[in-house]
Amino acid sequence: MKKLQKVTLTINDSEVIAKEGMTILEVARDAGIYIPTLCYHEKLAPYGACRICTVELSRKGRSRLVTSCVYTVEEGLIVKTESPKVIKIRKMLLELMLASSPAKAIQELARQYGIEKRRFEAEKTNCILCGLCVRYCSEIKQANAIGFVGRGTERRVVFHPEIASTVCASCRECFSLCPTGKLPSETDGVCFDDLTVDDFLKTQQSPA
Amino acid sequence: MRLKSPADLQRKRQKIISLRDSSRHCVTICSGTACHAYASEKTALAFDEEIKSSGLKGKVDIRRTGCHGFCERGPIVVIFPEEICYLGVKPDDVSEIVSTTLMGKGLVDRLLYKDGNGEKVVHEGDIPFYKHQTRIVFGNNRLIDPKNIDDYIALGGYSALTKALFEMSPDDVMQTVKRANLRGRGGGGFPAGIKWETTRNAPGETKYVIVNADEGDPGAYMDRSLLEGNPHSVLEGLIIGAYAIGSHNGYVYVRQEYPLAIENLSIALNQAREYGLLGENILGSRFNFDVTVHRGAGAFVSGESSALMNAIEGKVGEPRPKYTRTAVSGIGDKPSNLNNVETWANVPLIISRGADWFASIGTEGSRGTKIFSLVGKVNNTGLVEVPMGMTLREIIYDIGGGIRHGKKFKVVQTGGPSGGCIPESLLDIPVDFDELAKVGSMMGSGGMIVMDEDDCMVDVARYFLTFLTEESCGKCIPCREGIRQMLAILDRICEGEGKEGDIVMLEELSEVVQDASLCALGTTAPNPVLSTIRYFKDEYEAHIRERRCPAGVCKALVSYYINPEQCQACQICLRECPVGAITGGKNIVHVIEQDQCTKCGTCLDVCPPRFAAVEKLSGRPVPAAPPQGTKVKRVKKAQQ
């Protein structure tokens, strides 16, 4: 097996050493540098949907915006996690999410980024379609009891009744993953407040 | 019959040609989708019948060909060898054509093209619509029956493949395509040769080559017509590409909504297999390659490369978030080279005639020709192929014959939902990848929608954003929610509820949608809005500040009014109004009840031009109606 190379990069002016193949987000978290996320979970494949983890990177003098949960590190990369452009994007994304999902987690982030007033309105779905429930059910539980239907602005999450009726009642592990609390509130109102997904995952075999 | 060597193919070609008498009449009937919709098959059947009954069977050939391109005037019939072109041929015209042109030497004048001065044009190539084109890719469509491989072979088909397999190394082929600087015809204009090289050099034995036939831009149908009309040209390009890249498996990703393309392509694949042009040991070259047709289930976003790969894998056609190119990691994470239909169809030409020949056509940065689907408010709609660098003005006026009904040109929209609107002041820019991008639009796959003074730019932006809210996959926030909010603002402006600051807000949203979206559908989605703001800001402002739609399109900002001075109480509008919103009677001035009016515009359409009493108002109040029962003021006959 080829030994993984070490990669040196700069995040917010400090030099960081990472292993080849790691994403910017993983490296930043290991180094104690904060990057907000909503659709990311370390046990699930990166999904890149909420875009809130967008960072600005420059290489050979050219700057580019990428999602840090997907982008793998390269030698000599210069990353800014809170550049003016990044902040502008995060603020707008949060404003867009607040329009349909004024949930606690989103509001907290919005406060953090100094958003004062709401400029947009949309139907209150309380779902940002981060897909954590869908992906958890598919990737970890391999039950596929919940999935997406529809396209564009019609996209939404539904339980597949045939599967859900047999597996969901005894599982409910996706409840605690939901960043907006939509799932528990839309089902039977039971919320596993004090449990995190890791508590559930401890009982699972780690995926190959 | 399997052809086992290039010599076999050459013998086959000679045999096909020798069995054909080039002096014999051949009636070609365009059977592309547009002519098909004009019932061209009925015309073709009428020819079958008429030729049989007039004793010409065996003396005249009938050929149902691919799309000729002049779709405005179908069904198109061209009679060879003279190349006499008849337009709009109905079954009733057939017996006259047979007796006059096939049995005699005469012409059926009324079916010929007439130019602006009423002069008749006999030969297809002399019609202005065709005369200004350079049809190197699309031209053979009109000569061959797409369901018959022999037609393609007779015209030299598969000789480029022979040359590639037997006279060139894979690297020679690659270098030739690179040197020709063939850029992808699907949208982005990425150099095909460089993409090929990436796939060839990417690690892994298994590699795929794919034809992207998921054309979906509103108004665009050039890939469809090429695949329907000349499937072997695309297939030959694909096999050559596979040889250069080292791939043995190909896919054609084609929309389910293109039944004729799927049918003709499937026939072409079977015939190519029969002839040994696909499968094991192609023409005895020891090169193996075969193709699978994958039918797309009708999602616009599946044309995006990584979404297309997902769809072929049987997953949902959504873009992948990864920053790895599909040329390196595509289907099943194997290197997969994806090119558009038209790009592949250019490959045999480049191999046959050489990179220098190809590079001699077009502009410095954009070589070769491009097929456009020229549609909208232009006189000659259809498919046109021109060298890169021709100006928009030449395409719209010389080929398209100018604007319909003598109206004033306003914009041409290029590049589909990712493109933009180009105003009159820029009509003289040369059309190529870079110039279109410079003015805020893009080449895209070649859609070209011409609009006139009656089109509202805010409404056009709204149309494209509506399309995109439905066709975005909905996965990432900036695209789904950003476009949703942009559309809400445009809806508001068109409804007459625009606010100061809306334009700035649209620009602010656009920037984030462009910067943060996951795939190219999102990053280019704001273009229709940005380009219309760039060139028609005054129109946005008129909607917002004056509650006025300058083009008179946005219903909420428009009122219809009958001028009592001019109304002659003819009662036509009164009868035709679908909601009964018009009052009046014999000799009594008609009045539109504004609260009942649905603004359908029927009254304006039916009011006799000699009265011209109905007016469309925007941005100003409707004058008070005359008292009920006001008598008509008769206009003296002499004045009428």
Write a structural description.
The complex is a heterodimer of chains A (208) and B (640). Chain A is α+β, with helices and mostly antiparallel strands and 208 residues long. Helices cover 28% and strands 17% of the residues of chain A. Chain A contains seven helices and seven strands, in the order E-E-H-E-E-E-H-H-H-E-E-H-H-H. In chain A, the strands form two sheets. Chain A has a five-stranded mixed β-sheet, with helices on both faces. Chain A has a two-stranded antiparallel sheet with strand order 6-7. In chain A, helix 2 (84-100) packs antiparallel against helix 3 (104-112). The two termini of chain A are 17 Å apart. Chain B has 640 residues and is α/β, with parallel strands linked by helices. Helices cover 38% and strands 15% of the residues of chain B. Chain B is built from 24 helices and 19 strands. Chain B has a five-stranded mixed β-sheet. In chain B, strand 11 (369-376) and strand 12 (382-387) form a beta hairpin. In chain B, helix 7 (159-167) packs parallel to helix 11 (231-245), helix 19 runs antiparallel to helix 20 (502-516) and helix 20 (502-516) runs antiparallel to helix 22. The N and C termini of chain B lie far apart (76 Å).
- So how many helices of chain A? 7
> Which ranges of chain A are low-confidence, i.e. pLDDT below 50, for 5 or more consecutive residues?
189-193, 199-208
Name the shape of chain B in a single word: globular
Secondary-structure-derived class of chain A: alpha+beta
Structural class of chain B: alpha/beta
Beta-sheet strand percentage of chain A?
15-25%
> Could you tell me the radius of gyration of chain B in angstroms?
28 Å
Number of strands of chain A: 7
Helical fraction of chain B equals 25-40%
What fraction of residues of chain B sit in β-strands?
15-25%
Largest sheet of chain B: 5 strands, mixed
